[in-house]
């Protein structure tokens, strides 16, 4: 495999992980109000993901993979809502530890990274086509 | 045949170098969110080395027995170095700056075009000299 295809492979792996990240972000955002049903129950816990760099042995390229998707251990928020079925004795309900602002920022970052990877693919492709042009 | 001509050799070395660099830059950009990832870059091409044709791989396997198999994948003659001094890094230790990397990609692109144009130009000159059109 030539270097230009390898760089395309790497960029594609980067795009893949960023889209997976976007999926986790959308899960978090969608569940920002998923509360428990019973007083002892726990609401939705935010998910975070980490990436790792890995050598793909089949092609000999360095690719990015999702390392882990784990639960964010940050504390839950508390909302005062005595009428809710999950409210405790004092009338507080545990709410998910999702901060929409943080999720939005993460989303923007994923979007930018995705675009940067796309640029790399475009650049590699133009180099490849330039090489092929030389045959003419 | 072209390999014997200095100009072609140099243009080829330059294009090889850029292709390798493109790979390194791609992995930098792909790892823009990997914790503790430091960006890499390839050592600039040394003009003297290219001219002398001595840009050799750093590592190579030595065969001491006829039965030893020479690895098919030859190590790249270009050295990827990790950038120790970076402009800034995120709290998770990642020091990739997308703008910087994209600028490098653009730079590589134009250099590649220049080398390819040079290659073609000389090819045309040879064609002219040999009388074919």
Automatic annotation (TrEMBL), chain A:
Major site of localization recorded for this protein: other
Keyword Protein biosynthesis: no
Chaperone among keywords: no
Occurrences of domain Flagellar basal body rod protein N-terminal (ranges): 9-33
Any GO BP annotation: bacterial-type flagellum-dependent swarming motility
Stretches assigned to the Flagellar basal-body/hook protein C-terminal domain: 90-133
One GO cellular component term noted in the UniProt record for this chain: bacterial-type flagellum basal body, rod
InterPro entries given in the database record: Flag_bb_rod_N (IPR001444), Flagellar_basal_body_rod_CS (IPR019776), Flg_bb/hook_C_dom (IPR010930), FlgC (IPR006299)
Protein name, per record: Flagellar basal-body rod protein FlgC
Entries under Pfam families matching the protein: Flg_bb_rod, Flg_bbr_C
Family to which the UniProt record says this protein belongs: Belongs to the flagella basal body rod proteins family.
Location in or out of the cell: Bacterial flagellum basal body
Top-level taxonomic group: Bacteria
Cited PANTHER family: FLAGELLAR BASAL-BODY ROD PROTEIN FLGC, FLAGELLAR PROTEIN
Keywords for this protein: Bacterial flagellum, Cell projection, Cilium, Flagellum
Quaternary structure, from the entry: The basal body constitutes a major portion of the flagellar organelle and consists of four rings (L,P,S, and M) mounted on a central rod. The rod consists of about 26 subunits of FlgG in the distal portion, and FlgB, FlgC and FlgF are thought to build up the proximal portion of the rod with about 6 subunits each.
TrEMBL record, chain B:
Recorded GO CC terms: bacterial-type flagellum basal body, rod
This protein's record includes keyword Membrane: no
Domain of life assignment: Bacteria
Residues of the Flagellar basal body rod protein N-terminal domain: 19-37
Short name of any one Pfam family annotated for the protein: Flg_bb_rod
Localization (cell): Bacterial flagellum basal body
Membrane-spanning ranges: none
This protein's UniProt keywords: Bacterial flagellum, Cell projection, Cilium, Flagellum
Annotated InterPro entries: Flag_bb_rod_N, Flagellar_basal_body_rod_CS, FlgB
A single BP term in Gene Ontology: bacterial-type flagellum-dependent cell motility
Subunit structure: The basal body constitutes a major portion of the flagellar organelle and consists of a number of rings mounted on a central rod. In Gram-negative bacteria, at least four rings, L, P, S and M are present, whereas Gram-positive bacteria lack the L and P rings. The rod consists of about 26 subunits of FlgG in the distal portion, and FlgB, FlgC and FlgF build up the proximal portion of the rod with about 6 subunits each.
Function: Structural component of flagellum, the bacterial motility apparatus. Part of the rod structure of flagellar basal body.
Family: Belongs to the flagella basal body rod proteins family.
Name of the protein described by the UniProt record: Flagellar basal body rod protein FlgB
Naturally occurring in which organism (per UniProt): Paramagnetospirillum magneticum (strain ATCC 700264 / AMB-1)
């Amino acid at each position: 495999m030539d270097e230009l295809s390898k760089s395309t492979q790497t960029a594609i792996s980067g795009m893949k992980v960023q889209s997976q990240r976007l999926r986790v972000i959308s899960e978090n955002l969608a569940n920002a109000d998923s509360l428990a049903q019973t007083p002892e129950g726990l609401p939705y816990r935010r998910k975070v993901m980490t990436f790792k760099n890995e050598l793909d042995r089949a092609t000999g390229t360095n690719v990015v993979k999702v390392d882990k998707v784990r639960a964010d251990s940050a504390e839950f928020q508390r909302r005062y809502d005595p009428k809710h079925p999950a409210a405790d004795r004092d009338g507080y309900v545990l709410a998910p530890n999702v901060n929409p602002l943080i999720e939005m920022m993460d989303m923007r970052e994923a979007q930018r990274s995705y675009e940067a990877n796309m640029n790399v693919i475009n650049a590699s492709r133009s180099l490849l086509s330039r090489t092929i042009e030389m045959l003419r | 045949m072209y390999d014997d001509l200095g100009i072609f050799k140099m243009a080829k070395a330059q294009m090889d170098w850029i292709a390798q660099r493109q790979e390194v830059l791609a992995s930098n950009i792909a790892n823009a969110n990997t914790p503790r990832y430091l960006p890499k870059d390839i050592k600039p091409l040394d003009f003297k080395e290219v001219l002398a044709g001595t840009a050799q791989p750093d590592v190579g396997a030595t065969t001491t027995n006829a039965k030893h198999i020479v690895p098919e994948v030859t190590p790249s003659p270009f050295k990827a170095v990790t950038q120790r001094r970076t402009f800034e890094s995120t709290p998770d230790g990642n020091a990739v700056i997308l703008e910087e990397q994209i600028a490098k990609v653009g730079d590589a692109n134009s250099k590649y075009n220049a080398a390819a144009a040079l290659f073609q130009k000389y090819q045309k000159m040879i064609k002219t000299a040999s009388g074919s059109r």
